[in-house]
From TrEMBL:
UniProt keyword annotations, A-Z: Signal
Organism encoding this protein: Aquibium oceanicum
Compositionally biased intervals (Basic and acidic residues): 8-34
Name the UniProt record assigns to this protein: Fe2+ transport protein
Region (Disordered): 1-34
Secreted keyword on record: no
Recorded family membership: Belongs to the UPF0423 family.
Domain of life: Bacteria
Keyword Signal (UniProt): yes
InterPro entries referenced in this protein's UniProt entry, alphabetically: Metal-bd_Tp34-typ, Tp34-type_sf
Length: 201
């Protein structure tokens, strides 16, 4: 499944951010009143706008896919350096030899579009003929504008790839007897025919 495009620089088209599939809103409960739920919606709307900006103005490609009560999104950029914690100190680290792509994954609550932390995300990248390039854990990455999961990759080169993003149901506790019975199934989202342009920042 190709997913709903966020952005494709080649065509310079505006995003159609997701299919018309929506989860019912959370209900006021003894755990979260109407104002708390409204603030959560505002938080999610702000995060979603940041995701749109990342896809439209920064990344080379991206798409979303709704998977039950979650929305899975990816964005693709050139490989980039990052601060890494080494021996208790932050050290700026350039991409490793051969790394020429950076994949980012965002997972959102489909009800309010807030970022979902604490997931064990794996990305599998395949060529057009189905050959697996690799399957890698995608750790959480702090970013000044958009929390996400991601890492640099070494790909064979420019081309069209299939991306499979998957993770088990999270094991964190859920507040709220009324609204908290959610995120109970493993998730797999497949994005086909993704045009990737490799490079290094």
């Amino acid at each position: 499944m190709p997913g709903t495009p966020l952005f494709n620089r080649k065509e310079r088209r505006q995003e159609t951010i997701m299919a018309e599939e929506h989860n019912p809103p959370a209900k006021p409960s003894d755990e979260a009143d109407r104002n708390q739920l409204k603030l959560a919606q505002e938080e999610g709307s702000a995060y979603f706008r940041s995701l749109q900006y990342m896809a439209n103005e920064v990344a080379d490609n991206g798409a979303t896919q709704q998977c039950g009560d979650m929305i899975v999104a990816f964005a693709q950029e050139e490989a980039e350096g990052m601060y890494m914690m080494k021996h208790g100190k932050l050290v700026w680290t350039e991409p490793a030899d051969g790394e020429n792509c950076h994949f980012e994954v965002a997972v959102l609550d489909a009800t309010d579009k807030r970022f979902i932390p604490g997931l064990d995300v794996t990305l599998t990248v395949m060529t057009e003929d189905g050959t697996v390039v690799g399957a890698e854990h995608m750790p959480f990455l702090w970013h000044p504008g958009l929390y996400h999961y991601g890492r640099n990759w070494a790909l064979p080169g420019d081309g069209r790839y299939t991306l499979r993003i998957e993770f088990p149901a999270p094991d964190f506790p859920r507040h709220d007897k009324t609204n908290g019975k959610r995120f109970a199934e493993p998730v797999q989202a497949t994005f086909e025919d993704v045009e990737v342009k490799t490079g290094r920042e």
